[in-house]
Design goal:
With about 230 residues, this protein is an all-alpha fold. The chain contains 14 helices and no strands. The longest helix is centred in the C-terminal third of the chain and has 18 residues. It starts with a helix and ends with a helix. The relative contact order is 0.11.
Length: about 230
């Protein structure tokens, strides 16, 4: 969700990137990640991956999991990106590149990403890195697995930031009827991102009228009210 992305990315320092692109500062990088769903810039993806995979402050803040979730969604949506990344990562001596790439392929969880992961793990350059065995487990499925923790919402938001898939927002909305920490987190993130991003606002607005659950419709109307109030400040 946005609050977690912001709290993590705000710690970042400016850094140079490959492919002749440099993010101006930490805040711009955060904005770029979260706004990718509105303004996709695929030519900058590897530069963003390099930043996310290698910056120690991201690791210290626990942000690499979110970076991996974002790029897992990118890989899931467009397998050609995997091919491009593979060519750049396979000959790298960076341990962080290795674990970032493996994690992103694992999160993508498609037939193609699994095949590339298997091929990549057989490379001599990859064998020197210790495997934690995680790639053999099944990753969280953002489309079908139950939303039991706030961290699950983070993964769904990461997918939305990467793809703009409206089903992600609808899944987050589906947690609203039960009053608990997850629904509170969902409400906050929907409000925050509804203020920031037009597409989020439009989906909330549509669901406030069309969702079959009366409780959800009522809560979304209140969220829209909060968004409109905050937007006028």
């Amino acid at each position: 969700m946005k609050v977690l992305f912001t709290s993590i990315f705000i710690l970042f320092v400016s850094i140079g990137f490959a492919q002749n692109y440099k993010f101006k500062n930490a805040e711009k990088y955060s904005e770029w990640i979260m706004a990718y769903q509105e303004n996709p810039e695929p030519k900058k993806l590897f530069a963003a991956f390099e930043f996310g995979a290698t910056n120690q402050k991201i690791a210290d803040a626990g942000g690499r999991a979110l970076v991996i979730a974002f790029f897992g969604s990118i890989f899931r949506a467009d397998s050609t990106v995997i091919t491009d990344f593979y060519g750049k990562v396979k000959d790298s001596n960076s341990q962080n590149f290795h674990y970032g790439f493996v994690g992103s392929l694992w999160m993508a969880n498609t037939a193609y990403s699994k095949n590339i992961l298997n091929t990549y793990m057989q490379l001599e350059s990859s064998k020197k890195y210790k495997s934690d065995g995680k790639e053999k487990e099944r990753p969280y499925n953002i489309y079908t697995d139950s939303i039991k923790y706030a961290s699950n919402l983070d993964l769904i938001w990461a997918d939305f930031f990467a793809t703009g898939n409206p089903e992600d927002i609808k899944r987050i909305i589906s947690t609203l009827p039960v009053n608990n920490k997850i629904s509170d987190a969902a409400k906050w993130s929907l409000t925050s991102n509804g203020i920031q991003y037009k597409k989020v606002y439009q989906i909330i607005q549509s669901e406030s009228k069309e969702n079959t659950n009366a409780v959800i419709r009522k809560k979304l109307i209140l969220i829209l009210k909060d968004i409109n109030t905050e937007s006028k400040k």
